Amino acid sequence: MALTKPPLAAVVAGEPVTAQAWNALVDGLSDLYDAVIALGGATLEVVVTEGTTPLAGAVVLAEPLGDGQSVQALPPFGTRTSHLLVGLTDGPWRVHIQVAGFNPEVREVTMPRTEPLAVSMVLSGVRVPDLFGVSCRAALDQLRAGGIDADMILDTTGREISRASLPPEYVDSPVLFQLPEARTVVSTGTGRVRIVVASALRREPVVTMPSLTGLTLGEATEVLERVGLRVGTSNLRD
After folding, report:
1. 192 lies in a domain?
2. Residue 8 lies in a domain
3. Are residues 109 and 155 in the same domain?
4. 3-class DSSP state for residue 146?
5. Which among 110, 146, 175, 210 could disulfide-bond with 131, CB atoms 3.0 to 4.6 Å apart, if both were Cys?
6. CATH code: domain of residue 159
7. Which of 100, 120, 140 finishes a domain?
8. In this structure, which long-range contacts are made by residues 49-52, counting pairs with CB atoms below 8 Å and at least 24 apart in sequence?
9. Dihedrals φ, ψ of 65, to 5°?
10. Do residues 104 and 131 both lie within one domain?
């Protein structure tokens, strides 16, 4: 219950306290007792996990199924891996647990209770795999296997790479960056990931420059054309 401050009457030494003032003090003390009792002294540990791994980022809120105030749990601290609800009164409570990337869970408990409340959360999607250093082709295969779409592929020069038809020179290019980061939970079927891969090395064809010494311009032009070269600017001298 909410505390209300009673009217406090000032008295002068030797004067009696009126019945109205005395009753106001009694009513105030009664309200104080009720409020302190309503705060409760019971505690409840809530162990929130994914499988056997504790989840520290959960929001745990206890709602009384009757009179009283909702209580939010203290997060894990120090060596404690559980969330701690304090100030619970005896009776039924509904505990709400929420963690980003997981389906919300609700549990009903009756206080007093000595054993911890264990809640195993269920993913609302799939976790993005760690793609750093993985070849572009293998990264795309991992994403498809998890029901995740590669939203965009860029190389380190900012060039966009085709996802539908991966160019051969990018098949083995390693992934250098991904967004969102590894282990982020995304929706199955609609989750999207962007990756940046190393730029592909382009090999330009090379030829051995033939000797042109002693040849006429026509002969030199013919020799160059045979190896795929052409004459650029030429200077004629006596």
Report:
1. yes
2. no
3. no
4. coil
5. 175
6. 3.30.10.20
7. 120
8. 49/118, 49/119, 49/120, 49/121, 50/102, 50/120, 50/121, 50/123, 51/120
9. -95, 60
10. no
Q: CA of 152: how far to CAs of 67, 131, 196, in Å?
A: 53, 14, 8
User: What's the chain's length in residues?
Assistant: 238
Residue 192 belongs to domain spanning: 126-197
| Type of residue numbered 113 | R
Q: Are residues 46 and 115 in the same domain?
A: yes
Residue 223, domain member (yes or no): no
Which tokens is 111 given?
A: 């206080």
Rounded-to-integer distance, Cα 4 and Cα 1, Å: 9
Per-residue tens of pLDDT for the chain, all 238 residues: 455 666 666 777 777 777 887 787 777 766 665 555 555 568 899 999 998 888 878 999 999 998 778 999 999 888 888 999 988 888 999 999 999 889 999 999 998 888 999 999 999 888 899 999 999 999 999 998 888 888 899 999 999 999 888 999 999 999 999 999 998 888 877 778 999 999 876 666 777 888 888 788 888 888 888 888 888 777 777 6
